[in-house]
Design brief:
- By secondary structure, this protein is mainly beta.
- The protein is built from no helices and eleven strands.
- The chain has an eleven-stranded antiparallel sheet, with no helix packed on it.
- The radius of gyration is 19 Å and the shape is globular.
Length: about 200
């Protein structure tokens, strides 16, 4: 529900959230993906170019077990004080039209002795053929929490509108330019239009 902007620029990183926003492009990287026997996997490595902070490795593997989709992933950025290591495990399934998903993330920055653990769960239900409703909740180390309620209305096969209300406690910003972290619950709103070409 809250996705930090990607910061994998070609410049050497200077912190845990480093470089300039680079979209989905990782400079000087090699990736390989394979799918066989119901298992899909991929790995990506960024060349260090002599800068330890710039080294980046990521891998993911996924499969379906008895109607439950399971995915595990790993990422590591450098080995200096600005580096980090993250692990993620998530699963999803569908029961009587209700989509249920949950996951766990562990994030360990090299500059800190504290590892952040995040647990999340979400459900989505098709109210009508065109309208989907969803509820999501996440809890993280430090008494942090984030809850979302969302609606998505399909205008066509390629276009939909959506609205979301999110409330976070002890969180970082809920949206770009939003209020900074505090123990007070904060509420964010979003309305959008998405079309695929």
């Amino acid at each position: 529900f809250y996705v930090r902007s990607l910061v994998m620029s070609s410049a050497a990183p200077t912190s845990n959230a480093v470089g300039s926003t680079g979209g989905f492009f990782v400079a000087d990287a090699i990736s390989y993906s394979v799918s066989a026997g119901g298992i899909s996997a991929s790995v990506l490595g960024q060349l260090s170019n002599g800068t330890a902070n710039r080294e980046y490795t990521a891998a993911t593997v996924g499969t379906s077990l008895g109607g439950v989709a399971v995915n595990a992933s790993y990422q590591n950025r450098g080995s200096t004080a600005s580096g980090y290591t993250s692990y993620n495990l998530n699963a999803s399934t569908e029961v009587a039209g209700l989509k249920v998903a949950g996951g766990y993330t562990s994030h360990d920055p090299a500059s800190s002795t504290t590892t952040t653990s995040v647990y999340n769960v979400g459900v989505q239900y098709p109210v009508t053929d065109s309208l989907n409703a969803s509820v999501q909740y996440a809890s993280a180390t430090g008494s942090k929490s984030l809850a979302n309620i969302g609606l998505q209305y399909n205008l066509s096969k390629s276009t939909y509108v959506y609205t979301t209300i999110a409330q976070g406690t002890n969180t970082t910003v809920l949206y770009a330019g939003g209020p900074a972290s505090s123990s007070t619950a904060k509420t964010g709103y979003a309305v959008g239009l998405v079309t695929n070409f």
